[in-house]
Amino acid sequence: MGLSKSAAIVGAAESNEIGYPEVPKTSLELHIEAIKNVSIQTGIPISAIDGIFSAGMSSEIAEHLGIHPKYIDTTSVGGCSFEIHVHHALLAIFAGVIDVALVTHGQNGWSARRIGHGGGGGYGGAGITSPSVQMTIPYGFSGAPSHYSHVMVRHNHLYGSTPEDFANVAVVTRDWATLNPRAVMFSEETHEFGGKITTETVNNAPMISWPLTMLHCCLVTDHGGAVLIARPEIAKSLNTKPVWIAGAGENMSHSNMLEMGDFAATSAFASSKTAYEMAGLGPADMELALLYDSFTITPALTAEMVGLAPRGEGHLLWKEGHAAKGGRLPINTNGGGLSFNHSGMYGMQLLIEAYRQLSGTAEDGVNGIAGKQTNAATCIVNGTGGSLSTTGTLILVADD
Amino acid sequence: MTYDKPVPTPSPLTKPFYDGLKEGKLMLPRCQDCNRVHWYPRYICPFCHSINIAWIQGSGEGRIHTFAVQHRASGGWAKEVPFVTAFIDLNEGDRMATVLRGIDPAVPSAINIGSKVRVEFEKAAQDIYIPFWRVVGD
Ligand SMILES: [Zn+2]
User: CA A235 to CA A4: how far, in whole Å?
Assistant: First the structure.
C-alpha cells in the first residue's frame, strides 16, 4: 500500500467558544477544549493519542493532558502549519511509528488584545536580530496587511486586475458566512458590519494598506480546534466518518517578503504538485476548495498556483460566481478568514471545514444552516503562512 | 529634529553596510565565486553556497518592483501616514525594501512599477544612516 490514503482524519472539533468570547481565553484553554471535544466526538480516548502536532506548543499541551507521545512535532511556520502537521502525521502513521495523531490549535487573537499578552501559539518567524529583519524594520511595515498589499499591486500591474475585482472575493465569502451561525460576520446581529455586503461596501471600507481596505483583510478572533488522524483499521472502527488523506505536500519560497522572488506567485504551485501526484488527482478533479484567505489576494493567487484558474485570473472564480453557493467550485464554505474566524493562524479552521464538508456534517445547525453543505467528495485544502511564505496542500476525499 | 523611527543595530555581519552608509556609499555583498549580488547580507551565498563573499559599492540606482500605501503604522511612522513602502530592484540584482520619496501618497495611480529610483541617506542616530529611495524618472 502506498502513502496515499494510509491515514484518515476521523474527527474535527472546535473549542466551546470561538470568535469574541465574553470572558478572555488563553490559547492553552482553547486547545484543551477542542481536544476534549474531538475525543468525545470520535470516542478515541485522549490516552490513545501517541503523536502530537501543534504550532509551537506541543510539549506544554502534552504535559497538560498528561500524555507521553512517541512522536512530537511542533512545526510553527505560520497559518499553514496545520496542513503541514497533517502531512507529517500521515508520514508518521504510514511509517508505523504511531496509530493516532492529534493536530491541535489554540490562539486567542481576540482575547490577547484584552488581557495584554498572547499566551503562545505565535508565528515562528525570524527574530529581531536576523539580518533580513534588520533590513526591513526601519521602513514602517506593520504586520501582515502592510506586506500583502504589495502583492495585489504587483498582480494588478502584471495582469490588469483591479482591487475592485478582488472585492468580489470578500462579497462571495461573506455570503457563505451568512450560512454559518458561528461566523463572526454571520448577520447584523452578530457584528455591526455583519450580514451581506456588496463590492461597494468593500471599496468604501476604511483604507488599511492601499489597495487593501479593511474588508479585504481577515478578522482577528479567538479559535481553538483539534483533529484526530488515525490509521485505516482504527478509522473504519469508529462511529464518525473517515475523510481520507489522498495527497499532501508542503513547500516554501521565502520567509521574509524581501526574498519573495515573484510577487505574483507562491510555493503553493510546488506544494500542490506534490499533493496532486500523491493523490493521483488533478485540479479538474476538485469539487471543493478551502484556500487560506488572510486577504482577498491570498485565495485568488492560491487558486492560480494550485491550478484551479489560469495565471492572472484567480479572482474570476469569485467575480463570475463559481466559488459561490451553487457554483461549479465552491470555495471557503465556512465564511473564511475574511468573515468566519481568523485567529492569526487560520489553517486549523480550513481543516475542520474540509472534514465537515466531506463527512456530510457541515449543516449541523450549529456550524452551518440549510444551504451550507455541498455534495463535494473531493477537496483541496491550501494553507499559507507568513508573508505568502510557506504553504501546505492537502487533497482530501470522502469515504466511499 | 530627532529621528524617532526604528533604528537598526549593526551586527558583525551587517557592519560593512552601515560603515558604507556613513560615507555615502551603498555597499552590497557579492559572491566572489558566482559574482552575484544578494540582499540581505548573509553568511553564505544563496545562489551557489560559496562562503567567499566580499562587499562592493553599488550604483545606488534601481527600479520600483512593487509598492503599497500604508495608512496604519505604529511608533514614529504613525504620524507620517500615509506613506509609500516599496521593494526596489537594484541595478546590481536582488531587491531592497524602502519607503519611497519624491511621490504623492495621496495619488497612488501616479506611482509606477518600473520607475527609476536613486538612493539617498538619512541620519538616524550617531553613526547610523538609513537608505531611502527617491523616484527620479519613468
Ligand atoms: Zn555564489
Answer: 15
What cell does B118 get? 536613486
Cβ neighbours around B46 below 10 Å, total: 12
CB contact under 8 A, A139 and B96: no
Flag whether residue B88 sits within 8 Å of chain A, measured between CB atoms.
no
Closest approach of A49 to chain B, Cα-based (Å):
41
Query: For the domain A8-122+219-398, what is the CATH code?
Result: 3.40.47.10
Q: Give exposure, A273-291, as e/b (b: 16+ Cβ within 10 Å).
A: bbbbebbebeeeebbbbbb
Phi, psi (deg, nearest 5) at residue B122:
-120, 135
Alpha-carbon distance A86 to A60, whole Å? 20
Q: Return the SS3 of A365.
A: coil
In order of their start, the domains of chain B are: 15-137 (2.40.50.840)
The count of C-alpha atoms lying within 13 angstroms of the C-alpha of A184, restricted to the half-sphere facing its C-beta, is: 21
Q: Rounded to the nearest whole angstrom, what is the distance from the C-alpha of residue B44 to the centroid of ligand 1?
A: 8
DSSP assigned state of A293? -
**Nearest-Cα residue of chain B relative to residue A146:** B70
- Report strand pairing: A8-14 vs A222-230: antiparallel
**What Rg, from alpha-carbon coordinates, does chain B have?**
16
Between the alpha carbon of residue B25 and those of residues A321, B12, B19, B53, B61, the distances in Å are 53, 18, 9, 18, 12
Per-residue pLDDT 10s for chain B (138 aa) are 689 999 999 999 999 999 999 999 999 999 999 999 999 999 999 999 999 999 999 999 999 999 999 999 999 999 999 999 999 999 999 999 999 999 999 999 999 999 999 999 999 999 999 999 999 998
Do residues A288 and A75 lie in contact, with contact meaning Cβ atoms separated by under 8 Å?
no
User: b/e per residue, A105-131, with b = 16+ CB within 10 A?
Assistant: bbbbbbbbeeeeebbbbbbbbeeeebb
The answer to whether B72 contacts A257, with C-beta atoms less than 8 Å apart, is no
Calpha distance B85→A359 (Å, rounded):
45
ipTM associated with this complex: 0.96
Give yes or no for a contact between B70 and A146, defined as CB atoms under 8 angstroms apart: yes
B63 strand-pairing partners = B89, B116
Question: Distance between CA A75 and CA B121 in Å, rounded?
Answer: 40
| Phi, psi angle pair for B55, to nearest 5° | -95, 135
Report pLDDT digits (tens) over A179-238. Answer: 999 999 999 999 999 999 999 999 999 999 999 999 999 999 999 999 999 999 999 999
